[in-house]
Amino acid sequence: MAGGLTGLLTKHGVSEEDAGYYEQRINNGGVFLSVDTSTAGLSPDQVRDILYRNGGHSSSRAKMDAAV
Length: 68
Prior knowledge:
Elements: H1 5-11, H2 16-27, H3 37-40, H4 44-53
């Protein structure tokens, strides 16, 4: 999946810089996680908070602004 991740993310509104960053992270052993909050039993804000507290980044929020 990593080979086309940059193209896929940019088609969904992620900047090319951020999409390249995520693809590089996956190529280096990182994990891409997508959460459907409609079935998770948590609000999007709760999921976002959990991910950010644990070093995650959001494709809808620039990586430079993400809380680590």
